[in-house]
């Protein structure tokens, strides 16, 4: 599944990828380049993943917060 949207929201990219999408592309209607869309379709069809550069920062930040965050120190047990 490839999500193509004009909405530049990190939450949309996160939810789409969580739902199983293999790609997320942003398309401004006035700047849409057909070759970018075709390249994204081919990438997903061949098993690769593609994410537009802009939401990549938000996805990496969310990943870092959820997965790479330091484990909290357990509270000391009462004797």
From TrEMBL:
One of its GO terms (biological process) is phosphorelay signal transduction system. It comes from the Bacteria. This is Response regulatory domain-containing protein. Coiled coil: none annotated. It comes from Streptomyces violaceusniger. InterPro entries: CheY-like_superfamily, Sig_transdc_resp-reg_receiver. Residues 1-42 form the Response regulatory domain. SUPFAM superfamilies: CheY-like.
């Amino acid at each position: 599944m490839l999500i193509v949207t004009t909405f530049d929201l990190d939450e949309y990219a996160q939810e789409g990828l969580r739902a199983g999408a293999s790609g997320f592309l942003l398309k401004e209607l006035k700047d849409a380049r057909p070759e970018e869309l075709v390249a994204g379709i081919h990438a997903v069809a061949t098993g690769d993943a593609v994410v537009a550069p802009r939401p990549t920062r938000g996805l990496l930040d969310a990943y870092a917060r959820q997965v790479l965050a330091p484990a909290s120190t357990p509270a000391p047990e009462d004797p």
